[in-house]
Amino acid sequence: MVRNLFFTRNNFVLVLFSMFFLSCGVKQQQSIVGDNPWKTMQHIIDGVKEPSFRNKAYVITDFGAQAGGVFDNTQAFKKAIQICTENGGGKVLVPSGKYLTGPIHLENNVNLHLEEGAEILFSTNTADYPIVHTSWEGTELMNYSPLIYAYKKNNVAVTGKGILNGQANNEKWLWWCGSKRYGWKEGMPSQGDPANRVRLVAMAEEGVPVSERVFGEGHYLRPNFIEFFECTNMLLKDVKIINAPFWVIHPMKSTNVTVDGVTVQSHGPNNDGCDPEYSKNVIIKNCTFNTGDDCIAIKSGRDADGRRVAIPSENIIVQNCKMIDGHGGVVMGSEISAGVKNVFVENCVMDSPNLDRAIRLKSNSKRGGLIENVYVRNLDIGQVKESVLIIDMFYNVYGSQSGNFIPRVQNVFLENIKVKDGGKYGILAKGFKEAPIKNVVFKNVKIEKVGKAYSIENVEGLQLIDTYVNGTLVESPK
User: Fold this and answer.
1) Which of 51, 335, 462, 465 would you call most buried, defined as having the most Cβ atoms within 10 angstroms of its Cβ?
2) Which one is catalytic: 238, 272, 275, 293?
3) Which pLDDT value is given to residue 404?
4) Cα dihedral angle (372, 44, 330, 121), rounded to 10 degrees?
5) Do the beta carbons of residue 32 and residue 38 sit within 8 Å?
6) Does the annotation mark 293 as catalytic?
């Protein structure tokens, strides 16, 4: 556990640093101890090995697939994947062309590979989506299958220069959110109806087993796009993902996940780019996120369900990514009841008039959770609307923020950050009086333009080191 991290004016000083246990592939857990969190990050990276596959290709057209975007290729994908895994694995190859399909369920040792020019079009017919064990906004349930789904699998990948197209629009999927912006009209059903999202959360609070939380048809809870559920050694590489119904990339209870070189371009409601949840050893690198919600949002369950599962998301690494539109660049929360620890963000570019914040931590007293050990360095921020860093422990989710689970935040460090336009605040942080936010540090941060250097409430140990705001050196608050 990291304890009592603080900084002098000129350099980081570590009082006691006894970093965490981490899982290295299938190796036994080991304790990493050191005086440099970035060295610890490298230990995590070295322990995450990308999956490897037999040099054998199974071309979907050999299993009856037809291009053109009209023929239903669901069975062709299923047959190719099944034969591939039964024969020890390899590559299920999608050649150039447009291929319509229902959901794709991946199996062990299968690399679904899209050649350049290939596009998979996913059906918008709800009848094509079976009910499976999945999750919706931090609560487990039985709901529509994700468009691409791997359940309790090992050594699985989706790769290639092709396109994954969820085909969600204001006529299909999106209007379910209940917003007129996305095609919903008065009198239409939506996810917000009492029998839908509200009932799901209530079932979790009441301790109803997941197997009995059956939703799907008539409940308007949109499916995730790509979900790795209780998986190990997963790779998502190079593909472009567009028009998602809901959360785009969702590693759920998974270990050793690499998301590399992926482009997410999807501006629908709740179109988070990548949401690691209850997951460990996740590397997100060389990606571009242009989204209708958070670019990256690290989760760990909602309210009672998060406390039931009680698996923190940890060892999450974000490198060399570009964030364009979104509610936040790298976010922790708000579904964060089991906590988040050991997050490393480096060498990213964040820039858009439609990007609200760069780094965001959010919870409330229904969520609870502990967020600790967040390390950020070498960001180039062009423009954000609200703030460079926001820590909001009173985040109002659906109008309900009153509970008995006080969230905590400690050890948040930003270093070597360049900002042209920081919006309203450099730092906007509000904690609870009984659980103040602890140890927030800006070092070598230069914000050319911002409304106010900081606005804080119930924050202990805010350090501003070589930090310039609007051309002036800013001292730490007394």
Assistant:
1) 335
2) 293
3) 92
4) -140
5) no
6) yes
**pLDDT above 50 (res 13):** no
Average pLDDT over residues 236-247: 98
Task: Read off the tokens for 67.
Answer: 């291009």
Could you please report the per-residue DSSP string of 429-469? EE-BTTB-EEEEEEEEEEEEE-SEEEEEESEEEEEEES-EE
DSSP 3-state of 322: strand
226: nearest Cα among 321, 145, 336 = 145
Cα distance between residue 120 and residue 207, in whole Å: 38
Residues facing 67 on adjacent strands: none
| Residue in the structure block whose two tokens are 């995450």 | 48
Among candidate residues 371, 376, 372, 334, the one with its CA nearest the CA of residue 359? 376
- Any catalytic annotation for residue 327? yes
pLDDT at 23 over 50: no
Per DSSP, 17 falls in state E
> Do the beta carbons of residue 405 and residue 365 sit within 8 Å?
yes
Residues 162 and 168: beta-carbon distance below 8 Å? no
More confident residue, 31 or 62: 62
Identify the bridge partners of residue 274 per DSSP, sorted by sequence position: 249, 296
3-class secondary structure, 181: helix
What tens digit of pLDDT does each residue of 162-172 get? 999 999 999 99
Pull the structure tokens for residue 80: 């190719």
The encoded tokens of residue 141 equal 């349930």
Residues 145/134, Cβ–Cβ less than 8 Å? yes
Task: Give the span between the Cα atoms of 331 and 477, in whole angstroms.
Answer: 25
Q: How many residues does the chain have?
A: 478
List 250, 275, 327, 351, catalytic entry = 327
Terminal-residue alpha carbon distance, the chain: 28
